Amino acid sequence: MWLNPIVKKDVRVQARSMKICWGVFAYELILALVFFLAMFVIRQDIRYSYDNIYSQLVWLYPALASAQLLILGMVVPVRTAASIAGEKERQTFDIMMTTSMTPFAVIAGKVMTAILQSMFYVAASMPVMALSFVIGGMSWSYLFWFMAVALLLSFFAASIGILCSSLCKRSIGAVLMSYGFYLVFFIGTFLPYLIFYVIDADNIARVTTYGGPVYSDNLLLFLLVNPIVYVVEFFGHAMAGGTLMGEMVSQFSAGPIAFLTDGYRWIAFSSVCIFALSCLFLFLAARRIDPVKKHRVKHADGGKSAGKEKDADRGDASLRTHGK
Amino acid sequence: MLQIEHLSKSYGKFRAVNDLSLHVPKGDLFGFVGPNGAGKTTTIRMVCGLMLPNAGSITINGVNALSHQREIKKQIGYVPDFFGVYDNLKVKEYMDFYGSMYRMNSKEIERISDDLLELVNLSDKKEVFVDTLSRGMKQRLCVARALIHNPALLVLDEPNSGLDPRARVEMKELLLNLKSMGKTIVISSHILSELSEMCSSIGIMDHGNLVAAGRIEDVMESVFGSNQLIISLEEGRETAVRIAREHAGVRIDSVGEHELKLSHTMTQKQIAKMIGTMIANDVVVTGFHKQEGDLETLFMRVTGENAGQEGEKENVAESYR
Ligand SMILES: Nc1ncnc2c1ncn2[C@@H]1O[C@H](COP(=O)(O)OP(=O)(O)O)[C@@H](O)[C@H]1O
Ligand SMILES: [Mg+2]
Asked: Distance between CA A135 and CA A59 in Å, rounded?
């Protein structure tokens, strides 16, 4: 099997630098703090109830898991920001583009590196995480689901980071831009609903009072790509065994939202949406770093027929290579 | 091997390369020379597929380079005008990294990179971190890296800039070595004399235009009109002048006490014969040498003229220094 050379090189280079050691150290330190904080809260709770402390340890799971997702969310853009911009700063990017590596292979290599790193951190946290399963009596399947969620959200964060990295000249710009993207996803996805609510409050009040189909709730569909809602929904299933989105929408709502807020549908569909969006970002990043494509778009306005000819030619070439 | 036709490239309104046509035959060591900002890098980047031209075509080994990028990339080794190296990576791993980008298997890479490191004289540095190498070594490593997939065409952009004289000599030897192995090499530089020592043909670029191209002798001739020959002699000046006059394509520029300056369009053989005739006729020839048409003068003349024509504000001679 052909291992993407970028993964091999990046992992090797990073393993040699001290950064990764400090990274894991900081990661574990934060988790330890969260652990003690959670234990403190649990103990305070226990004092006024007859529950035994062991069963309350299940609450370590959402505490530690969300802390980890938060750290990964903050760290992944920083690490991926340098992926393309850093190669450009180091001027190795041009050399890479003159080799047989396709832009997509470059992007794929960078994503894989980022995900591997995230998983490295997650694996390092396993002993602490395991407490809530071993002692708290939480179902082991949730350990698996947590890994899956961490994987998906790392992929999402990495794709944002890499897209920004391909758009920016400097790594630092890419980091800031990634956090900007986060804001759009965290807050921006609520906006359509909120704006509509403010504008049309009377109507909503009327409809909810007298019953009848409410279509405005479909504006909440934007939340499918909101990672925070995704995580909250995930813990809703894990800890409370119910869907939280289902409680957010009106009982009279109609349309796709009514369908999606039932059972596991939301989390399943949201996973698909986040995955698809990540793939779209990666596709855009690959397009962006392709030195040849970028310019072709530019002179399409100059000579349209010439551009088309080239397209046909190119299609030919790719067909042939596929045929081989 | 490399055929460029009517290549043009603009950055916005600025025309960096203007209607450039060029042919580099197989096995040639071609020097691309011009002052900074002449458009050498731009041209090279287009040849390597890092940029699309606005107009024109590039053909490599009979394959259209603009439409068949993927096949072309296997035929070109590119050494950019900077060292692209990583920290924390060993020489061996550096070679392996680029080798695997061409989907070569690791055994193959190891074998070839051993040979290449031997060729560029870095065999003993295999386990050394790339960023600790000297500039000259890095540059040679870059050449080895560019050769890992055995390309037919090697393109080097200003490989000598920033190297000390010793490293330059080593680089020159390396390139001549590669040429003898049958590689076609294109090398750019802003210093003509550096190239004239190794290149068989050159192209002189200025302000995006190719102002002269061909074999060095031909370029000189086309610029100076003819070659100059200086014959030093002790006796028999009159005889020498008479003999020189008898030859077609010879003009006598000046006759000094012990010196005869000629302009000519003869081949080397004809020159040798003419001097032989002089000696046979009792002219005491103490020496003769080709007036090398002085490359720097040639360069100045070619690039200077052009700047004048285009009405450019900057003095090329100055920007060249
Ligand atoms: N990316 C770019 N954007 C705008 N102008 C550029 C760019 N790259 C090069 N140029 C301009 O094009 C001209 C040719 O540059 P270049 O090909 O690098 O010259 P050379 O390599 O011969 O020194 C220069 O005047 C330079 O300022
Ligand atoms: Mg240059």
From this structure: 11
